[in-house]
């Protein structure tokens, strides 16, 4: 007997998307200089915006991005040295599971945005 595993949950996806749409850029502006994985975070974000990215991949990445945006998580972000450890772990697992769908164009766009943001 085989069981089908469904990764995509439309209600959760829409809830995550709303959370990311409302909180992603404000949080990025607050913490950009303190996060060593910012390039991958932005690349994941841009992959979710790409119409060529499969919906299942978008769902995985959107869940990780929503976790990053959450104001309360396992390790509070304000704890120096450790605050983003859980965010990094969640993002790393999500990116690793869909790595083939985060393309060079997403990483290039992320690099351009990061260069611009850090120059300001």
From TrEMBL:
UniProt xrefs under Pfam families: DUF1232 (PF06803)
Superkingdom of origin organism: Bacteria
Chief place of localization: membrane
Transmembrane regions listed in the UniProt entry: none
Keywords attached to this entry: Membrane, Transmembrane, Transmembrane helix
Subcellular location(s) per record: Endomembrane system
Membrane topology designation: Multi-pass membrane protein
Residue span, DUF1232 domain: 57-91
Protein name per its UniProtKB record: YkvA family protein
Organism: Dongia sedimenti
């Amino acid at each position: 007997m085989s069981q089908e595993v469904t990764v995509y949950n439309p209600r959760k996806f829409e809830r995550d998307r709303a959370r990311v749409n409302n909180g992603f850029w404000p949080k990025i502006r607050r913490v950009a200089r303190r996060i060593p994985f910012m390039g991958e975070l932005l690349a994941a974000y841009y992959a979710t915006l790409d119409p060529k990215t499969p919906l299942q991949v978008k769902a995985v990445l959107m869940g990780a991005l929503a976790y990053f945006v959450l104001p309360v998580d396992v390790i509070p972000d304000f704890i120096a040295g450790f605050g983003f450890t859980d965010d990094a772990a969640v993002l790393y697992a999500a990116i690793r599971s869909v790595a083939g769908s985060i393309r060079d164009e997403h990483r290039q766009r992320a690099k351009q945005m990061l260069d611009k943001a850090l120059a300001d």
